[in-house]
From TrEMBL:
Pfam families: DUF6427 (PF19992). The chain crosses the membrane at residues 12-35, 55-76, 97-123, 143-171, 178-199, 228-247, 259-276, 282-300, 307-325. Keywords: Membrane, Transmembrane, Transmembrane helix. This is Beta-carotene 15,15'-monooxygenase. The keyword Nucleus does not apply. It comes from the Bacteria. InterPro entries: DUF6427.
Length: 326
């Protein structure tokens, strides 16, 4: 299967679609009785008040989520290929993205994190274009606005602001206007939100938006480790990918090296940003899937021993299915 997705063959579109729904057999087999979907953060519902809790049945919720994952995988695949992140263009980024979004049951339903992954993929594309433009102030401003919109949907998305400065350090020589442009773009979204609150005589509620920033970091976590055994094969593949990347690091283009450094920091920031949400859910870690999928795809794109990487991927998929059903 890996060898098939190493090629840019149109038939892979059909195979990817079938694979997307195959990875969700477990949740279709045993549909939840009820699924809630909050499209926006509570503070943004004054702008758009959309109640989807009762509008979608569980089956419709999961079907739409699966369709969105498939679309995201195709967009993500195009971004990865356009920026030459792998040895050669392929469908592996899309395959790994779909696999990553199938690790846990909560990943398979509509959630704010799933919606913001559209913006996260867009951000990856924007970040990787920074070193290709002579004047990137407009691009950085756009990035700030994208993060602002993402924050309206899912508050922890705000943590992506850190990546603006990391990306500028990696890709650009210092220009204070570029550093300010990202913050101005982000604040522009919340300036208009504040104006809207003011027009509705509700400006006091606007200040409540920022209360999670003062939350204390939780000292105790309740974790059922059996739920996360599926991450063992993921960890093995990531270790193999890291060794492969280390071996090829200084033989890669400088832009590719910097891209992987940025994606590494994005993975860390996305995972750690759960701190910004007092009551986070497992689906929060969908934000880690795009940068993580690039690393997984990198290994399977560069692996040499066919029987080994094909068996490794099959075992990976079977372990995911096993833990989903069990």
């Amino acid at each position: 299967m890996i060898n098939q997705f190493r090629k840019l063959n149109p038939i892979n579109l059909i195979l990817l679609l079938a694979y997307t729904f195959f990875m969700r057999i477990a949740i279709f087999y045993e549909l939840p009785a009820q699924l809630n979907f909050d499209f926006l953060e509570p503070f943004a519902r004054l702008l758009i008040n959309v109640d989807l809790d009762n509008a979608l049945s569980p089956s419709a919720n999961i079907f739409i989520a699966s369709t969105l994952v498939f679309i995201q995988a195709l967009i993500f695949n195009r971004v990865a290929n356009n920026h030459n992140l792998l040895a050669k263009p392929s469908f592996l980024p899309a395959l790994m993205y779909v696999t990553g979004t199938s690790l846990f049951m909560p990943f398979m339903v509509l959630s704010p994190a799933l919606i913001t992954n559209f913006l996260l993929i867009w951000l990856i594309d924007k970040f990787l274009k920074l070193n290709k433009s002579a004047n990137s102030i407009t691009t950085v401003f756009d990035i700030g606005m994208i993060i602002g919109v993402g924050t309206l949907i899912y508050f922890p998305f705000m943590a992506m602001l850190l990546l603006i400065f990391l990306a500028l350090l990696l890709f650009r020589s210092f220009n204070w206007r570029e550093w300010v442009a990202g913050l101005v773009g982000f604040l522009t979204i919340f300036f208009f939100l504040a104006v809207f609150y003011y027009w509705n005589n509700n400006i006091v509620s606007f200040y409540q938006i920022w209360r999670p920033l003062g939350s204390k970091f939780p000292s105790v976590f309740k974790i059922n480790y059996n739920d996360y055994l599926v991450l063992i094969p993921v960890t093995v593949i990531i270790i193999l990918a890291s060794l492969q990347l280390r071996e090829n690091f200084f033989r890669s283009f400088i832009s590719t090296r910097k891209a992987f450094q940025l994606l590494f920091f994005m993975f860390i920031v996305a995972g750690a940003s759960f701190y910004l949400k007092p009551h986070f859910r497992t689906w929060h870690f969908l934000l880690c899937v795009p940068p993580g999928a690039v690393l997984l795809a990198y290994y399977f794109s560069n692996a040499k021993i066919r029987w080994f990487y094909e068996i490794l991927f099959v075992l990976f998929v079977l372990s995911v299915q096993y833990f989903l059903f069990v």
